[in-house]
Amino acid sequence: MKSVIIGGIENEQINFDYTMTELANLAAADNMEVVGEVRQNIEKPVSATYFGKGKVDEIARQAEMLDAEALIVNDELLPTQIRNLEEETGLDIIDRTALILDIFASRAHTRVAKLQVKIAQLQYQLPRIRTASINKMDQQTAGGNTGGGFTNRGTGETQIELNRRVIQKQISSLRKELKEVQRDNETQRKKRKKSDIKSVALVGYTNAGKSTTMNNVLDLLEINDSKRVFEKDMLFATLDTYVRKIVLPDKKSFILSDTVGFVSKLPHQLVEAFKSTLQEAAEADLLIQVIDISDPNYRQMIKTTEKTLAEIGVDGIPMIYAFNKADKAGIPYPSVEGNQFTYCARDQKSIEMLLSILKKELFKDYETETFLIPFQDGRYLDLLNKKANIKKTDYQADGTLITAEVAPKLKQQLAKYIVEED
Hints:
This protein is an alpha/beta fold. It contains 15 helices and 14 strands. GTP binds at residues 204-211, 236-240, 258-261, 324-327.
């Protein structure tokens, strides 16, 4: 496990303490041990080294004393800042963006997730290839003749442009491949839209309990265990969007999706790359924002989630604020007030109440109607039995009289069989 120091500039960031705590958690998620922390209160970062000269010297001394191998900076650094800090401290320099990208790369399992992360990594590397190329040139030309400086620089610049074109080609090729892989997902989404089935997306901060919530919904309804979502008490345990069809005891059904979690200052490369994965949220009929109420920074997490949703174009969709881990926070649960639901994802009564809330919100346009289905039109009776919540059935001389709770589309389809009340 690599020993690291984390550091940042206070004046540059809102909620600095919160983001530093989060940075330490991100480091732990990437199998690093945080052995020290440095902070500097200056008006703005130093252009060459991010930290001031005195602080850079302090970092080097602290790293030597603590036997730290790397410095993780709570910001996205310029290529020159990374190079200069490495030279002056002798440490590996990792900025916040690179750390998150590395975590995503280690968590990606499906083809879609791997492609999305690789695209984001290459986009991050693109403006930074100059540093690597210059370092390589320095090694190649060290001790060379003094008259070749200009020629070498020109060769280096040509190589940099070549490297840049190679990366751009890779990004273009990966995007094309991603588009092909995602065609099936898009086709499935269109089919669901055409079938008029409702959809719900679980969104929220990483490790808030989205996957646990989804798995306990599946368990309660005894849906096949093979459909369970991977869950673990760690940041970014899942990167893929998991989609499951939920069929309730009264035959109402909806699609439930578990989306990738968010984090403050999520790199724009990842937001862009994961837009298609988050399309399930953008097209949902209802969003459930899962929030860890036991975390003292939960209000900031709500802001981060809503900011990220806005960045991917999610707007105007009804939302339930689901405050999870109420057991850890010592808050009574389950309870509901307006669009706020307090619960524990591992508690059966909480999941039952959540399903009740979803039913009320998703199916409020359903109506109870009475239909008289002639015996010769038995296929429509089968349709009602399959898709509607049957409340009463009577057999009469001219057909089956059936009272059922139905969706607007099914009501329209069977309009000619509706029995008007006197």
